[in-house]
Amino acid sequence: MERKEVWRFLKFVLFSASAGLIEIGSFTLLNEFTGLRYWPCYLIALTLSVLWNFTFNRRFTFRSDANVPVAMMKVLGYYAVFTPLTTWMGDYLAETAGWNEYLVTGLNMALNLGTEFLFQKYVVYRGKIDNNGKI
């Protein structure tokens, strides 16, 4: 992997970490103070982190001028698969299997980090990386 791609991945990880703080923070608030089941807490927290992550990674990590609605629809396609699978599995592990809900959320976040980077790089911004003239 060349230096530029390593730097791109590191930026993605850093922005994802900030999105992760948003996700775990909002998940914690919902989980501790609302009495909701696992799945709505996770779904709301995931949605907030996705919006944050998409915005910053488009501008600073992939530096893309790709059409925003088209890019968002591609990301929506990714999450149309990822979200139901992780919501269902997470709810099963936390509510039925008795796993700690924070462990389950952390595992989902780690899975999301790796798969989303590859999806954004090779699907969402393919051929549209480093073309927005920004930093």
Describe this structure as you would to a colleague.
With 135 residues, the protein is mostly helical. The chain has one domain. Helix content is 80%, strand content 0%. α1 runs antiparallel to α2 (38-61) and α3 packs antiparallel against α4 (101-124). The mean pLDDT is 92.
Architecture blueprint of SSEs:
Blueprint: H1 3-33, H2 38-61, H3 68-96, H4 101-124
Feature tags:
135 residues
Strand content: under 5%
Task: Spell out the helices and strands N to C.
Answer: HHHH
Number of DSSP E strands: 0
**Which range best describes the helical content: under 10%, 10-25%, 25-40%, 40-55%, 55-70% or over 70%?**
over 70%
**Ends apart, CA distance between termini:** 21 Å
- Multimeric state: single chain
Secondary structure tally, helices: 4
Low-confidence stretches: none
A few lines on this structure:
It is built from four helices and no strands. It has 135 residues and is mainly alpha-helical. It starts with a helix and ends in an 11-residue tail after the last helix.
